[in-house]
Amino acid sequence: MGYDTERFVGYVNEGLLCSICRDVLEDALQAPCEHAFCATCIHGWLLHHSSCPEDRQALDGALLRPLYRYMKNDLNRLQLHCKNREYGCEMVCSLESIDRHERECEYSQILCSNPGCPVQTERRNLDGHLAVCDYRSRACPNGCGYTVLGAEDTQHNCVAELRTELELLRSEMICRVEEAKHEMESRLDSQRRHMVQKESILQNEIEELKSQMSRVLSDVRSLMAAERQHRQELEQAELEKREL
Questions:
Q1: What percent of the chain has pLDDT over 90?
Q2: Are residues 144 and 162 in contact, defined by beta-carbon separation less than 8 angstroms?
Q3: Predicted TM-score (pTM) above 0.85
Q4: Degrees (nearest 5) of the Cα angle 97, 79, 86?
Q5: Which residues are in the SIAH-type domain (predicted)?
Q6: CA neighbor of 2 nearest in space, from 33, 31, 36
Q7: How many CA atoms lie within 13 A of 64 on its CB side?
Q8: Which pLDDT value is given to residue 114?
Q9: What domains can be seen in the chain, in order of their start residue?
Q10: Half-sphere exposure of 169 toward its Cβ, with a 13 Å CA cutoff?
């Protein structure tokens, strides 16, 4: 939607009005046929139509372009009242600078910054409201360290609050201890499985070494028996030689 024509000072050229809402162009876009629209208006129109709302020529949203510079300059020079005129603001600005003024306008209606407070007040009166707001917060005057809302002053009980905090801390500590316990048990279980696996591997290696040693001993015994037989044969051959 565009800017309400009633806010403007003096005459507004027809070419600076949105062809859809008939208000003064806001975030203006222009079609190839040179008709101009508010960005929100034309995008909403093109969701259900594929033509220019003014002359019904085919229109693709990708063909929309910013206003010609001379039109944009004419638009920015228009003078209009602040939207907070009904609350007492008498400022008249150019369209180019109105947004900046309204962001800082002392007559703007803003919500109280205290969480939960429903009061809406003028910017210029905000500090006064915050000083008496029922939702303002402050440190407990009794020194318990808690932040107390103004509406809770009469209900605040330091002992009860500290007892609640202590219970919360105790519960949190128990949870952390349980988590640490579970994590330690998980680690020990993982290490235990690793040790068992390693022990099994070592046991297999020992059995393999025993098997290899057994084979070596068997080979040694065979060699020793062959040596004895060879020695006996040599001795027999020596005897036969002597007899000859």
A1: 50
A2: yes
A3: no
A4: 90
A5: 77-135
A6: 36
A7: 22
A8: 84
A9: 5-96 (3.30.40.10)
A10: 6
